[in-house]
Write a structure and sequence with these properties.
41% of the residues are buried. The N and C termini lie far apart (49 Å). The protein contains 21 helices and twelve strands. By secondary structure, the protein is α/β, with parallel strands linked by helices. Helices cover 49% and strands 13% of the residues. It folds into three domains: 99 residues, Serine Threonine Protein Phosphatase 5, Tetratricopeptide repeat; 169 residues, Glycogen Phosphorylase B (Rossmann fold, 3-Layer(aba) Sandwich), CATH 3.40.50.2000; 160 residues, Rossmann fold, CATH 3.40.50.2000. The strands form two sheets. Strands 2-1-3-4-5-6 form a six-stranded parallel beta sheet. A six-stranded parallel beta sheet has the order 9-8-7-10-11-12, sandwiched between helices.
Length: 442
């Protein structure tokens, strides 16, 4: 069973639930581990090992009292003396952490359910320096919030009425605002709007904008004079916001690019070859059809070229279109679909190029992960691409893409070093967030 399928499976065995929960923790997806456990415990009785993992998740999320309560329940019911001692040590660890946390800056991280893809590695890197608590907005309430934001946008309700509704209904956000010294809203979305309305004057608020939000209506509704910092992942976002007449004080905008964990990506020398990787959720914006056009042109040079697609379709219409295009272009033997790949490091080992055909990106992990491994990037020159990538990696049309792929130059060490020199590592990212939090706490 694929890792992503385990989330939807309501009939996992105990051993499967433990295995998949631990796997999600290994890849820093603590919320998914929690879902696996909840799904199992909803249908089954007390299980000390699964509850221990759940308590570990609570501990990671900064909910120390809840973690201690679960550990204590396990300790009380456990029959094995060695295991009881193991759990007792975890209880002591929580108690020590509670004492330490009392003197630390309190950082609340607000994020929608299932939208914390980029958060946990950062939280892991900063949660010993600060008391970090994650506040996850349930999916059902997210829908209500989106509806409310659209009502504000369309002037169905005014600002005063919007704020009143938020005060009455937005309990999770209000808890975060009450508890924290600093509030981090992940994504410049409906949570960012409501936080900018409800934030007490004595608190600090920063918002991280990834990409799509810059083109949406959300930034137009945020009360920017009540926001202390806006984090962007690519400098071209500044231009987009200015073009939309948002007039955000430039001193409030801070660039913190996405960072990757270099230690999880094995570097080795790659070279010219015939294996082209394409990695992404398969949506019209990611422009897979353009990759098919590039492949068709390459096959005029050699029939050995293969396009390896790691990603899942999210649009049935586009899926039908792509598969029909492959058939119409006689590419059946040269395109391989892998669905979503859990271990991207291993999957990339035998690839020679990373082809990105997206029409728009923020700061794409797929490209920088491949470069860190020593794989040559071949990147569509989307708006803002030049802020991140040298011209030698960019193409504007099919012929230029072919040139980037087939040109003699191939330097794995250059690609790997490029990531380090650009400070696109997880450590660099974490250090910049620490500096930001320290700055806001003064």
């Amino acid at each position: 069973m694929e890792l992503k399928d385990a989330l939807k499976n309501q009939s996992l065995s105990r051993d499967e639930a433990i295995t998949y929960a631990k796997k999600y923790i290994e890849i820093n997806r603590y919320s998914f581990a929690q879902k696996i456990i909840f799904n199992y415990l909803r249908e089954n009785n007390f299980d000390e090992e699964l509850l221990e993992i759940l308590a570990d998740v609570y501990f990671f999320n900064g909910d120390y009292k809840k973690a201690k309560k679960v550990y204590s329940t396990i300790n009380r019911k456990a029959k094995n003396d060695n295991y009881k001692q193991h759990i007792f040590q975890k209880i002591q660890r929580v108690e020590e952490r509670i004492i330490l946390a009392k003197n630390q800056i309190k950082l609340a991280v607000v994020v929608n359910e299932d939208e914390d893809d980029f958060l946990d590695p950062i939280i892991k890197g900063i949660n010993s320096d600060y008391w970090v608590k994650k506040y996850v907005i349930p999916r059902k309430y997210v829908r209500f919030q989106k509806m409310l934001s659209k009502a504000l946008k369309n002037q169905i309700i005014n600002k005063k009425y919007y704020k009143l509704i938020q005060k009455i209904t937005n309990k999770k956000l209000k808890k975060a605002l009450k508890w924290a010294d600093i509030i981090w809203v992940e994504w410049s979305n409906e949570n960012a709007i409501s936080a900018s309305y409800l934030k007490p004057n004595c608190k600090k608020l920063f918002i991280r904008l990834h990409r799509y939000e810059a083109f949406d209506f959300y930034p137009l509704l945020i009360e920017w004079d009540r926001v202390d910092k806006l984090i962007i992942v690519n400098n071209y976002i500044r231009d987009i916001l200015n073009e939309r007449s948002l007039n955000i004080d430039d001193s409030k905008i801070k660039l913190i690019a996405n960072g990757i964990d270099i230690s999880r990506l094995s570097f080795h020398e790659h070279s010219h070859g015939y294996n082209i990787a394409w990695v992404s959720h398969i949506t019209p914006m990611k422009n897979l059809h353009f990759a098919l056009e590039v492949l068709r042109k390459l096959l005029e040079i050699s029939d050995k070229y293969m396009l390896h697609v790691a990603g899942n379709f999210t649009d049935l219409v586009y899926e039908k279109y792509i598969k029909q295009s492959i058939k119409n272009m006689n590419l059946d033997k040269n395109v391989v679909f892998y669905d979503w790949v859990n271990d991207i490091n291993e999957w990339l080992n035998d690839k020679n190029y990373l082809l990105s055909t997206s029409v728009c990106e923020g700061h794409p992990f797929n490209i920088i992960e491949a470069m860190a491994k020593g794989i040559k990037p071949v990147v569509n020159n989307f708006y803002g691409a030049e802020f991140s990538f040298d011209k030698q990696f960019l193409f504007n049309n099919i012929d230029e893409a072919i040139t980037v792929i087939t040109t003699d130059q191939y330097d794995s060490k250059l690609y790997h070093t490029y990531i380090i020199e650009k400070q696109w590592t997880e450590k660099d990212q974490i250090d910049k967030f620490k500096n930001l939090i320290d700055e806001l706490s003064k």
